[in-house]
Design brief:
homodimer, Helicase, Ruva Protein, domain 3, 2 domains, 44% helix
Chain lengths: 205, 205
């Protein structure tokens, strides 16, 4: 693209560094900002600057937080002995939205993925192992996505925790509530049969 | 969405003000920025700030420019008596990319659209009429999109220019080069027949 303005070109270049934003979309976004009152750009800029400079990770669960200890870890009503292992804050938000989970979280910050150069040492795995060894945790729930990377990470952590006596479980995989069996994929359907639950349990939810 | 961090929430809120960016996409973009080195956020922020505070509109054609007079208007090789009327800088870039146009532009900054509260006075129409009345322009090419708003704007400008003796034309509408007739819409095909050109002309392009 041939811009008539260096300033415009730089803004478009930076905007198009964001994932899923190509040059054309970036140009549309930047031109939109130029058409809006200056305040909108200033608000965006200040929110991003503040976020980048002031954001913290909770020292206990590594979730994104404004404080040393996040709201969930600081809440005495949450069971500290039950910890759900997730990839990032989006998973925390998804589980919180169900309103069904009363334990705490441990945010790994990613999954083991040799292709992307992410090994166990880049993730928050050691702090989790330390917490378990201190005996603070009774049960761990694995809630990573069921991809190869997710399974690898689950298994790596599971091996690290061997001998600690902590109880481990993984969230149930099965047919979505309301889904038709005929459209379900075989792996999911197979797992939902293998991991069938007593009928009485299904009456509770 | 329920965020664990006010800073994160504000950044997502501001990001989701951009057109076509919902809350979920905004969260993905903001989390991406958090994972990248701080420099990327700082570069984006400084590019946007500089753009918003330093950008100018060319005083002659109202195109976005870093200087008082844009490169096209300042270029003595471009015919100043031929002016193409476009909506915004994206149209200028599209026409420039063809490498076929040697005249100058006049950027309106939008189209007349009563629904969006945009009337003729919010667009750069009067400066165009003034330029024409000063006798600087011999021919005007209308290149707005062929929507109702585009046609209205064309017609409004056309009426404003009545009596000035300036020649007006509009870019040709027709079947795209390489397109099959059977898939063309009726309006376009109809126009391409009504506005047929001498066969010799088609040999030049």
């Amino acid at each position: 693209m041939d811009f008539s303005s260096k300033l415009l070109e730089e803004a478009v270049d930076e905007m198009s560094q964001l994932p899923g934003i190509g040059k054309r979309t970036a140009l549309r976004l930047v031109l939109h900002l130029l058409k809006q009152p200056e305040g909108q750009t200033l608000n965006l800029v200040s929110a991003l600057t503040k976020l980048r400079s002031e954001i913290k990770l909770c020292k206990k669960c590594f979730n994104i937080s404004d404080t040393e200890l996040c709201d969930i870890c600081a809440n005495p009503a949450r069971e500290a002995s039950l910890v759900c292992i997730v990839e990032d804050i989006r998973d925390v938000m998804a589980i919180e939205n169900t309103g069904q989970y009363r334990g705490q979280y441990h945010v790994l910050g990613g999954k083991i993925s040799p292709i992307d150069g992410i090994g166990p040492s880049q993730l928050n795995i050691q702090p989790l192992v330390d917490k378990v060894k201190k005996g603070e945790i009774k049960e761990i729930i694995f809630a990573l996505s069921s991809t190869m990377e997710g399974d690898t990470t689950n298994f790596y952590i599971f091996r690290q925790l061997e001998g600690t006596g902590v109880k481990t479980s993984t969230i149930a995989r099965g047919i979505s509530v309301g889904d038709e069996l005929e459209y379900a994929d075989e792996v999911t359907l197979g797992r939902s049969i293998a991991n069938r639950v007593p009928f009485e349990n299904s009456l509770k939810a």
